[in-house]
């Protein structure tokens, strides 16, 4: 009798142990393994390197400014400040920009004209996609139909019309000007836009993108509104 | 007694070494099943110590409790009520009670033995 009880107990204990162990296995899943192959790690590395070089160049330009201040400190501090203010205004989009770039003409597609379809304005979504695409490929300064894109620019639908900086964009044709850092970047952007899938997206809306060859000197007008800095706060510094 | 502990160790090592895993969504059921089986086990030990142990009650209780608890949890998931908490509560309370009774019986036995030794 006692032996039988013992066997039962042993069997039950065995089952309990097994269940507890399985539960333990399930709860303590092994950490996610790094399954990236060499190529993915290389890509990650190259991304980080790019960031590194970008930061280095930023540090370089800031050092330059600092040197300029030091050199001009006794000569004319006002001049140095003016220069810095000018640079800041330029990067904020408040002054005219000049440089190598391309011009993109947005036109109604030939088919739409031939079929006699009514030409509708460009949709804000499509325009935002285009601007994102441009930004992705080193577009530095952009203006759409004479409206300069700055950091706070909103591209949106206002009463059924697509507006940039709250000013309505013409129905196509209109032009988009893009300035890049260098001629090389402009060429890259040019080639990218020619091969981009965004052309198809424009074609769906009965529009075509006519990308001009890169030009050495393109002028983009300044932002003509006032920049609202109501919610800006001075940074604490380092 | 040592044999049953050996069984427990065997079960644990078998589970750990074979690295069996169940889908995480069933982990709830298994945890309740473990609790139910522990409850039955301690119930059995108590019954044995109180001399009321019945083989059929023990074995049927073991499987029935597991199935009932898992079924309750399953029903709870489908009704949107955390019914498995009821099972956890019931088994938890019973577990503590059983262990308390076992402790008392063992203490009483120990004291008795000591007394017997003292009289000799």
From TrEMBL, chain B:
The organism's place on the tree of life at top rank: Bacteria
Membrane-protein topology: Multi-pass membrane protein
Predominant location category: membrane
Pfam families in alphabetical order: DUF1290 (PF06947)
Annotated transmembrane regions: 28-45, 57-77, 83-106
Compartments, record wording: Cell membrane
Entry keyword annotation includes Cell membrane: yes
Keywords associated with the record: Cell membrane, Membrane, Transmembrane, Transmembrane helix
InterPro entries: DUF1290
Family the UniProt entry places it in: Belongs to the sbp family.
Protein name in the entry: Small basic protein
Organism: Planomicrobium stackebrandtii
